[in-house]
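Human: I hope this is not a bother. Would you mind checking the protein record under this note? Thank you for your patience.
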Amino acid sequence: YIDGQCVKARVPMIDSGTLGPKGHIQVVLPDQTDSYGSTNDAEDGNEIPHCTLKMFPEQTLHCVEWARDLFSQLFNQSAKSYNKIIEDEQLIDIGDSEQMKILKEALSLIEDRPTDFKACLRWARLKFNQYFVIDIKQLLHAYPLDHKTKEGKPFWSLPKRAPEVLKFNPEDELHARLIAAAACLRATVFNIEIPFKAPRELESIMKMAMQAVEFDDEVPAFNIDHSKVEQMRAEVDESKEDQEESKQEEEDIEETIDTGEDYEEILDYAIRPIREAYQSNKDDADALKTILTAPQEFEKDDDQNYHVDFIYALANCRAENYSLDHMDWLTTKLKAGRIIPALATTTAAIAGLQTLEIVKILKQCKLEDMRNNNLNLAVPSLMAFEPGPPEKVKIKEGLELNIWDTWKVHLPKKANLKALIKKLLKKYGLNAMDIIVNGLPVYIHALDSKVPSGKTEKPFHDLFNLSEGQTELEVTVTFSDPDDKEGKILNGTPPVVIIFKE
């Protein structure tokens, strides 16, 4: 935003930033350099492969990222989908796969909505079994311990680690913390009261874990899910991946069709009653708590909200599955929150380099004297280079522009849009299609050419309510090339400023 305002006002700007031991400075000068928004940051290249994250973690950090992703799925995405379905009265387009996905998530939430904290504990206990028993057994069924690769080598060799099933132990503090955090987050999403005065205290946590034991009898027995096994194998075997994706797309289409056939029935028994309750209680905050959900955006800075507690316990339980080292709570918080501590030395260096460029601007030094800087104290390295010129964009043959360009048109206040359109065509060789002032359209070619509104004949001072001392007006104009028979709108045209002359 600041960059855009500086370009609009044509004033210099120095952008700077730090990230741990790294820092940068970019000098932005009107008409001479690129703007900040003209360039994109390079990919950091630290993305963890999907297979590693989902099935073959090599270090505890991979478990933390997996837990972070799961947090979003369990406590944010599905809750948002549910609220969207209930609050939006529009019917769902059964042909839209994205909308059908939202509907599926909402239905899942409706079917399994807890009514009390005990139900939240039950859910947490079943999830523990899903992630650390069933999913591990599925993986070991897909790739047994004696499985060989195509080359005849053991499949389970480093960096791949063969996982082990993790049996739930209510007396294990880590297991207890996971049950407590998961149950408390589930209760928070559904606005259910947590019946513990200090739910983050160890005594309360152990009590919750012991209460979860009563649901051991409800833990389902392991059954091989052949479709899931095939999916796992496809993700590992890249040659099968495209085939599996195609198969999955076909299944999704079939599922969408099936859901579409029963859509009215689903709407009647599941969605419509809740929508009606929502409409009837829009102004009742207490009633809305029992109707809508409270999606949880991951917040690293609140230690009391169970977010980091959940990720810490979940990640370390997965680390136990794969015989990886535990990560302490604070480190988990830093990694999950992607917190990189600020370094005073980096800040001081960048501030000093930035000050040098400010002095150069004040002294009106030449462009070749200015320097952009990339700094990395960890290496250490300092790269200083001359700012690059603004990139030119070809609008049409013989017409190139950059981000600093503004088209200025001199007209009297008594002139009108018709005169503006004519002048733009004469000066720049382009047809004005639409004219927008302060975000409001004042001329739309497609409509005005069929049904003239009369606005093109009105003087500027009447059409725009110009003040007596106003000397200019910025308008946004879309253009087309007169030589283009299709009349396509051109990209990259600059703002137009009308300069009022006496």
The chain has three domains: 1-44+342-385, 58-243+269-323, 399-500. Residues 58-243+269-323 form a domain with the Arc Repressor Mutant, subunit A fold (CATH 1.10.10.2660).
